[in-house]
């Protein structure tokens, strides 16, 4: 709390009354902390790809005719990848600030999750050969009421994380099951796991686990925040179960089509 005191005086200057003001500054301090976390996370995330792009561009600018095409191409591919990373970061920042300002507008319809998951998995398998992904999708899965593009983003984010935070073997298992009210999707990895304390916070904006593996992995702590906003805007839930050094399971639920009562805008 911030305390200030002032004194009311008579015409002759004698004190006749005092005013004590006590202001709770917890919220201001929290906002200040958030702002400085934001600036340090974003600066770091911007600096790394910019440094890589600058480094490769400098060597290319000085390349002479003896450089092999293969070498030139690998530098250009690296520049392209880093530009993609910058693009994704800026996209996520805009997304998160739009959520804060206006909530999320949903474009919902009946959606069959099975084929959508298979599509996302196919794309991932084509991109990355070292990842082993297994699927457990039951027949006759009921449809959910959802915004197809946004749920695809949630799946993509959870799968990217499962791979990013698995330093050893990259094995990901996706399962779906239906309950009376909802359909639940789970993404399980055998990666680094998340401590109990961090499990409570990973869905917060800019929260990243403080260990060295996470610090050396690109990311700004926005993916899960965006996932949670999307799932909750559907009237669903998102959560994590995890054991440190063994792996994590991220799950989210969506209301079954016939049970959906959708809030159209949240927050
Ligand atoms: P980012 O990956 O960009 O940092 P996210 O919001 O997606 O941001 O994740 C927040 C943090 O949660 C990550 O920085 C990481 O520390 C932790 N995390 C997320 N997914 C996993 C996972 N599958 N295994 C271990 N840690 C994870």
UniProtKB/TrEMBL annotation:
> Ribosomal protein: present as a keyword of the record?
no
- EC number(s)? 2.7.13.3
Any one GO MF term held by the record is: ATP binding
Q: Does the keyword Manganese apply?
A: no
Q: Which GO terms describe its cellular component?
A: membrane
Membrane-topology descriptor: Multi-pass membrane protein
Q: Mind listing the GO biological process terms from this record?
A: osmosensory signaling via phosphorelay pathway; regulation of DNA-templated transcription
Q: Where in the cell is it found?
A: Membrane
Q: Which UniProt keywords apply?
A: ATP-binding, Kinase, Membrane, Nucleotide-binding, Phosphoprotein, Transferase, Transmembrane, Transmembrane helix, Two-component regulatory system
Reaction it catalyzes: ATP + protein L-histidine = ADP + protein N-phospho-L-histidine
Domain spans labelled PAC: 1-37
The Histidine kinase domain extends over: 41-258
> What is the name of this protein?
histidine kinase
- Source organism per entry reads Reticulibacter mediterranei
